[in-house]
Amino acid sequence: MKALISGGGIGGLTAALALQQVGIEVELYERAPELMPFGAGIQVSPNGVRVLNELGLADQLQAFAFRPEGLEMRLGQSGRRVFMIPTREDAVRRYGVPHYHMHRADLTEVLSTALHARAPGALRMGRDAVGADQDGAGVTLRFADGSTARGDVLVGADGIHSVLRSQLFGADKPRFTGCIAWRLVIPASRIKPGVIPPTGTVWVGPGRHAVTYYLRRGELLNFVGLVEQEGWQTESWTEGGDRDALAADFAGWAPPLQAVIAEADDIFRWALFDRDPMPAWSKGRITLLGDACHPMLPFLAQGAVMAIEDGWVLAASLKEGRDIPSALAAYEAKRKPRTASVQLRARQQMGFFHKRTFIEQLTTYGPMWLAARLAPSSVNSRQDWLYSHDVTAPGG
Ligand SMILES: Cc1cc2nc3c(=O)[nH]c(=O)nc-3n(C[C@H](O)[C@H](O)[C@H](O)COP(=O)(O)OP(=O)(O)OC[C@H]3O[C@@H](n4cnc5c(N)ncnc54)[C@H](O)[C@@H]3O)c2cc1C
To answer: CATH number of the domain at 2-37+105-173+276-350, please?
Structure first.
């Protein structure tokens, strides 16, 4: 069997490795002339690390990753901690694998290096897919330069603006969330040690929140700021932003955040759009994966991790040897409930992080502050529904 994949992001690369591992020939077509993921951090929670480790990448990930001490929530203005879920050793104890924070370029490098080694020539750059046709015997992927590729099954891993999704199911209807996001990465050495905690920290406040964490063994520091505002609405991850405007959005917030913003040089911003879970992902021999079929708001940091889980399940379904449409239907049936629930819970998080009044903050975060001190296990288990999910287990 030969699988074609359109899109060489984290989802497409992981799917290629998973398919190759179960003995399926793979060709991965990427539009960009070279893999240049945008400069930002990515939290790879244990449910994703588990898959990557099963793909034989444990040592390579460890060489690049930062292992956070915990996942924290702090009040953005005072900097006071609400709670912390320990993760450095505890993630391994609780979920069997570590919790990593990585630079996107490092994760892409790990995945693409492994693919080059295991399936030389499988990754084909500068190939812009414009559509696909299928018949009883196979599927043909068409490219902008007029060339084609032929395989048995086609996976659209072509991201949030997926060409293949539009072809299969028509244009999607994104809604502006009323929230924009800022992102930046700086060398950690620019900030005094101890100012930014060695955790994944969510700093919450009225109508906005920020997230800080370290990358690349602690050498880099990642900042994301999410702010409710109307007006500007560009859904691009590579649009430049202005430091004064970012500083104004977080004026009066805790000194550690001011310190990071003051050191920023390359700043980017994008508008957050929300989409409902799709009713179907596949038609015949063509299916979708990752952001192409379940784009989600970044409030649970699970978009890429869900794409990683998808890749594993897709390969397992195709390996079982059923006819291709049935295997794709089984993949979709397994993945849709999980990804839809993560998509919907990510949507709810925005309101949870952005409490506007003192009373709202007190009634929402007060019980969590108390629980963290009196019954820490109730707080430490908050992410179990997400992180303990094991797609690599038999029937997973
Ligand atoms: C700032 C930010 C922070 C985030 N943080 C996290 C996090 O901490 N943890 C997490 O799990 N997720 C996070 N996410 C979400 C995550 O980045 C996405 O969910 C993930 O990148 C989706 O992977 P993908 O492979 O499906 O799509 P993409 O990464 O978008 O990759 C799609 C690929 O397809 C290629 N392509 C597109 N069209 C074509 C075509 N016509 N022909 C050929 N190739 C094509 C593109 O060039 C691209 O390489 C974050 C997102 C953002 C914006």
So the answer is: 3.50.50.60
